[in-house]
Write a structure and sequence with these properties.
This protein folds into two domains: 130 residues, Jelly Rolls (Sandwich); 49 residues. 47% of the residues lie in helices and 22% in strands. It contains eight helices and eight strands, in the order ααββββββαββααααα. Helix 2 runs antiparallel to helix 4 and helix 7 crosses helix 8. The N and C termini lie far apart (48 Å). It holds the Pfam family cNMP_binding. This is Crp/Fnr family transcriptional regulator. InterPro entries: cNMP-bd_dom, cNMP-bd_dom_sf, RmlC-like_jellyroll.
Length: 196
């Protein structure tokens, strides 16, 4: 059970499980290790798994018609990630998911999660809360992108993802903020100078 400490601590934020229910949850859970830059979902494919980041960092991103990538979310330890629409309907994904670091993942396949709902109904509540929270995050992100300046978006990024800046490249942060890496360098320089 120690191997699953992060996982069950995350679950315990919303539901309480008995030891027997934990054993059922583990019996349907799978794991994988991915390398930095390794894709676990490509846009156009079906999102077949719902991932929990045990260690490392992933990004959820989309590509525009010109091939430019736009980071929508970073998923560090203790985060869940999937293209929810694709996973729920088992249809083509709009988003891609890729490792920004070597990462250890736990995950439920679509079929195993459906089995888990039947065997431990509490998990339906857990994933409903998870998806509601994710939807709230996504809506707030849209509002942030249209209502805040680049400097304000950068400050919010630092608040939402403390210490992530030291772990991932500037180009990925700039993509998330909707600015160029050069403009991000200017914002960081101004911020550093104002703190002197």
């Amino acid at each position: 059970m120690e191997r699953y400490d992060h996982f069950f601590n995350n679950i315990a934020m919303h539901i309480a499980l008995t030891d027997q229910e934990k054993e059922v949850a583990i019996s349907l859970l799978q794991s994988c290790t991915i390398k930095k830059k390794q894709a676990i979902l490509t846009a156009g494919n079906i999102c077949r798994n719902f991932y929990f980041v045990d260690s490392g960092c992933l990004r959820l991103f989309s590509c525009d018609n010109e091939g430019l990538e736009h980071n929508v979310m970073f998923c560090t330890e203790n985060w869940w990630v999937a293209d929810i629409a694709s996973f729920s309907t088992q249809s083509a994904a709009f988003y891609g998911i890729e490792g920004l670091e070597d990462s250890e993942l736990l995950y439920y396949s679509f079929q195993n999660l459906e089995k888990l709902y039947l065997l431990v109904p509490k998990f339906e509540r857990f994933f409903r809360i998870l998806i509601q929270n994710g939807f709230n995050f996504y809506q707030s992100q849209i509002t942030v992108n249209v209502s805040l300046t680049a400097q304000e978006r950068y400050a919010l990024f630092q608040e939402r993802y403390p210490k992530l800046e030291q772990r991932i490249s500037q180009k990925h942060i700039a993509s998330y903020l909707g600015i160029t890496p050069i403009f991000l360098s200017r914002i960081r320089k101004r911020k550093f100078q104002s703190q002197k």
